[in-house]
Amino acid sequence: MSEFTKIQWCDSTVNPVMGCSAPCELRPSPEKLHAESAKFFMEHFPGTQAAEIARALDEQMGDHNATEIFQLREHIVTETCEALAGTCLAPARLKQLTRGFKRMLDRHFICYAHQLHLMRGKSAAKPGSKGHPGYAPQFEQVTKFPGRTAKVARLRDLLGSRHEDKPWLNGLPRTIFVSDMADALSEAIDFEYLRRELIDVVTDAFGRRHIWLWLTKMPKRMAEFGEWLRMGGAQWPDNLVAMTSVTSQKTVIRAEQLKRVPARFKGLSVEPLWEQVTIAMNDVDWCIVGGQSGFGARPFDLAWARSLHAQCRASGTAFFVKQLGAKPVRGVVPLKLTDEHGGDWDEWPADLRIREMPSGFHSLGFDVIG
User: Rounded to an integer, what distance in angstroms lies between the CA atom of residue 67 and that of residue 60?
Assistant: First the structure.
């Protein structure tokens, strides 16, 4: 949990679950890493048969998941190079290839939560390592952390407070991002746990003072959870906002699946956006958009944000530009920014300096505990 966060559209974060098993375009599958590794070694061992490289990689990668492949990268490079060259490489050459291999891997680990787990979870390269106790052992090993949500619910109420650095939150209670480091709708998490850790907390005397923003890449399962609640005689709390992520036209289907969630408010996190998208914004209250940041970031065309803004205006959906990312462009012309994440809106074109919160958030009744 974090009482304070730099994330522009909320005050705090909480993760009743750490890790993720949801299919996701922001993190690579082992098969993807195997294929990209084969390309890497083909480039550095020209003339070597593809089948020989595949056999060498199969020997080293085996059944390892993506986290383990990243953590074992030095071993994989050393052993694969020796198998392909028939001898040990000079230390300087081996060091050069290891660095290049890591750069290749870094381009595919886009998910920030997965990146942190690579560093703070257990390390496959260091047998016996325990990892940080607040993280899942591996990102792929979805882990429950009961009690976290209840602890965050007891944070002081912010209703009526002024947010000097986030003035768009003025007039609202504390806004809490649920699952910035995980996907709580992962198949390993049972609905009974989600009811106890989320629904029961969001609706208790402390939880009712806040707005909870629950993000998932599995809105279909979120809708199933909503139906499970209904069948059990429970309702989806008005102050629990259902949200999902969209990064491309291919993933717009998540927005349609989200509409089946029985939540009063629904939102989209269209970040990182990789291409222009068309989304039916009916029954969508909020649309957050942003470009990709970090190593290997893809370009973010400002025209895509303007197109989304027009779609939101046509439907009355609140629009929020989070950041322009590391590579904002106008068509093919780069936009030069000082902020490496493109998060300083003083550097943006004036028409994109938009950070709206859904007006309906202000209509919710919030309890105050004296």
Answer: 14
Going by the DSSP 8-state scheme, the letter that residue 291 receives in this structure is -
Give alpha helix (H) positions in the chain.
30-44, 50-61, 66-71, 73-85, 91-106, 112-120, 148-153, 191-194, 200-202, 219-231, 253-258, 302-315
Cβ atoms 187, 220 nearer than 8 A: no
Give the pLDDT band of residue 139 (cuts 50, 70, 90). Answer: very high
As beta bridge partners, residue 19 has 182
User: How far, in Å, CA of 270 to CA of 273, rounded?
Assistant: 6
What count of other Cβ atoms lies within 10 Å of the Cβ of residue 117? 28
Could you give the CA distance from residue 235 to residue 208 in angstroms, rounded to a whole number?
14
359 burial type by CB count under 10 A (0-12 exposed, 13-18 middle, 19+ buried): exposed
Q: Are 121 and 65 in contact (CB under 8 A)?
A: no
328 φ, ψ (degrees, to nearest 5)? -70, 140
Burial zone of 192 (CB within 10 Å; 0-12 exposed, 13-18 middle, 19+ buried): exposed
Region 155-179: mean pLDDT is 94
CA-closest candidate to residue 7, choices 140, 125, 180, 158: 180
Strand partners, 69: none
Per-residue pLDDT, averaged over 327-335, amounts to 94
CB-count exposure of residue 259 (10 Å: 0-12, 13-18, 19+):
middle
- Integer Cα distance of 337 and 343 in angstroms: 9
Q: What strands, in cross-sheet order, belong to the sheet with 286-290?
A: 12-14, 175-178, 211-216, 240-245, 266-270, 286-290, 318-323
Among candidates 39, 246, 65, which has minimal Cα distance to 138? Answer: 65
Going by DSSP bridges, is the β-strand pair 175-178/286-290 parallel, antiparallel, or unpaired? unpaired
Q: What is the pTM (predicted TM-score) of this model?
A: 0.95
Judge whether 10 and 215 are in contact, CB under 8 Å.
Answer: no
